[in-house]
Design goal:
The protein is α/β, with parallel strands linked by helices. The chain is 51% helix and 9% strand. The protein binds iron/sulfur cluster.
Length: 424
C-alpha cells in the first residue's frame, strides 16, 4: 500500500490499536502487518492485521448454489457487524453472486474479501455444467473486475502448482483436499493438463493487486481437512511455495496474508504457526479454525474456537470463524452469531495471553463489576449483552444482588460481609 498517501487512515488505525504510528508504518513496510483496504473504498472500520495488533476475526458470508437470498446474506452482515466482525468475506457460489457482492460492498463498514475463482466457476457451471471452459483470461478478468468494484482482499489459491500437486497425489490422505477453490482448480488442471493459472500468472495478479491496493490472502488448497492429515508433506510443500510467492509479492509492494489450517490437533498448532512465520517472512497468518477434532458436528464453532485461541496465543493474527453449521449446511443468521461470538472470545483469549493491556483492562472491568454484583455493567462489557441479560432475568430472585446459581449462599456476598476482617 502507499503508506504516505494513506496517512490519515493509518493514524486512525494506530489510535484504535493504541500503537505508535511509526511502529505501524514500519510493520506494514516489512510485511508483518497488512491493512486490507482497496484504494476505491472508504469505510468506517478499517483494520490492521498482523504482528503487535489485536487478533482479528473474519466472518464468511455468501450464498450457495442451493440458497441464494440476498436479504438473508445482508442480515448475516448486519449481525456480523453488531457482534464485532473485523472483516467479512463474501464466499457466494449462488447464481446471483454479483448482486450479493455489490450489496455487501455497499453496506459493509469493514473490509470485504472474496475468492474470485468462485465467480469464474459459477459462470462456467451455469454455461457448460463443468469447469473446463474456464480460461486464464476469464480468471484475470474477474480478478480485475472485482478489484475495480472495490474488494479489499482476495483469496488466491496459488500454492497448488504441478509440483505441489505431485506431492499431494503421492500422499495417502484421509480427506484428500477440502478447499473449495483448490478442488475447482484441481479439476481444471487435470482436465486441461496445465499449470494453475493463479500460479502461472501470479505476476499479473500482483499488478492488479498493486494498482487497486488489494491485499492477497494466499489460499491453502492443501490444508488438512482431517486432524489425521495435518502437517503432512503436501501441506508443508504448499506452505514453502506460498513463502516464495510472499517474497515476490513483497518485492512488488503488494500486501500478503497466508491462509492456514484447517483441522489440526492442539499439539501441532504451535509448530504450524512458527513454520508459517519463518517460511513466509512473518506475513500475517490467517487460520481457518483450526478445528482441534473432527468429531464436533453441530459444535464445530467450539472445536474451532479452541484451536483459534491457542493459535492466536502462538502468534496467529487473523481467525476465520467457524459456525455450528460447519460441514452440515449453509449457516443461518443465528449460526453466524454463534460462530462469531465463539471466535471473538478466542481472539480475546489470544490477546490476553499475548499481553495486550487493553484486553486485560476489559477483563479487569468485568471482574470488578462481578465483585460488586453490578449486573448491568457486566452485561455491557460482555460479547452478547442481550443474552447475558436474558439469562439473568429469567431466574431473577427476590434477593436482587445475587443470581439464582448460589442465591443465599452467594460466596461473593458472604465474603463481602467479612470485608472488614480482610487485609487489603
Ligand atoms: S450467586 Fe453464585 S454465581 Fe451468582 S454472583 Fe453470587 S457467587 Fe456468583
Amino acid at each position: 500500500m502507499d503508506i504516505e498517501k494513506r496517512i490519515s487512515l493509518l493514524e486512525k488505525i494506530a489510535q484504535d490499536e493504541k500503537v505508535a504510528l511509526e511502529t505501524l508504518k514500519e510493520k506494514i513496510r516489512q510485511g508483518t502487518v497488512v491493512v486490507p483496504l482497496n484504494k476505491k473504498r472508504k469505510i468506517n472500520h478499517p483494520c490492521a492485521i498482523g504482528e503487535g495488533m489485536r487478533v482479528k476475526v473474519n466472518v464468511n458470508l455468501g450464498s450457495s448454489w442451493e440458497a441464494d437470498g440476498i436479504e438473508e446474506e445482508l442480515k448475516k452482515l448486519s449481525v456480523s457487524i453488531k457482534y464485532g466482525a473485523d472483516t467479512v468475506m463474501d464466499l457466494s457460489t449462488g447464481k446471483n453472486l454479483k448482486e450479493i457482492r455489490k450489496a455487501i460492498l455497499e453496506q459493509s463498514p469493514v473490509p470485504v474479501g472474496t475468492v474470485p475463482i468462485y465467480e469464474v466457476a459459477v459462470k462456467a457451471m451455469e454455461e457448460k455444467g463443468n469447469f473446463s471452459s474456464i480460461t486464464p483470461r476469464d480468471i484475470l478478468q474477474t480478478i480485475e473486475e472485482q478489484a475495480r468494484e472495490g474488494v479489499d482482499f482476495f483469496t488466491i489459491h496459488c500454492g497448488l502448482n504441478r509440483k505441489t500437486l505431485e506431492v499431494f497425489s503421492r500422499q495417502k490422505r484421509v480427506m484428500d483436499m477440502v478447499s473449495r477453490g483448490g478442488a475447482i482448480l484441481l479439476n481444471w488442471m487435470l482436465a486441461k493438463n496445465k499449470e494453475n493459472p493463479l500460479y502461472e500468472y501470479f505476476d499479473k495478479i500482483l499488478e492488479i493487486a498493486k494498482e487497486y491496493e488489494v491485499t492477497l490472502s494466499l489460499g491453502d488448497s492443501l490444508r488438512p481437512g482431517s486432524v489425521l492429515d495435518a502437517t503432512d508433506r503436501a501441506q508443508i510443500e504448499e506452505l514453502i511455495l506460498l513463502g516464495e510467492l510472499t517474497q515476490r509479492a513483497h518485492s512488488k509492494g503488494v500486501q500478503v496474508i497466508i491462509e492456514g489450517p484447517g483441522h489440526m490437533a492442539l499439539d501441532q498448532i504451535e509448530t504450524n504457526v512458527l513454520a508459517e512465520k519463518k517460511i513466509c517472512q512473518g506475513a500475517p497468518f490467517y487460520v481457518l479454525g483450526p478445528l482441534v477434532t473432527d468429531i464436533a458436528l453441530g459444535y464445530d464453532h467450539i472445536a474451532g474456537a479452541i484451536g483459534a485461541a491457542y493459535a492466536a496465543y502462538c502468534g496467529a493474527d487473523f481467525l476465520c470463524y467457524v459456525t455450528p453449521a460447519e460441514h452440515l449446511r449453509l449457516p443461518t443468521v443465528e449460526d453466524v452469531k454463534e460462530g462469531l461470538i465463539a471466535f471473538k472470545i478466542a481472539a480475546h483469549a489470544g490477546d490476553l495471553a499475548r499481553g495486550n493491556k487493553h484486553a486485560y483492562i476489559r477483563d479487569e472491568q468485568v471482574s470488578r463489576a462481578r465483585k460488586k454484583r453490578n449486573w448491568e455493567e457486566q452485561f455491557e462489557l460482555s460479547f452478547d449483552p442481550e443474552k447475558a441479560r436474558a439469562y439473568y432475568f429469567r431466574d431473577r430472585q427476590k434477593i436482587k444482588d445475587v443470581c439464582s446459581m448460589c442465591s443465599k449462599f452467594c460466596s461473593i456476598k458472604l465474603v463481602d460481609k467479612c470485608r472488614k476482617f480482610l487485609i487489603k
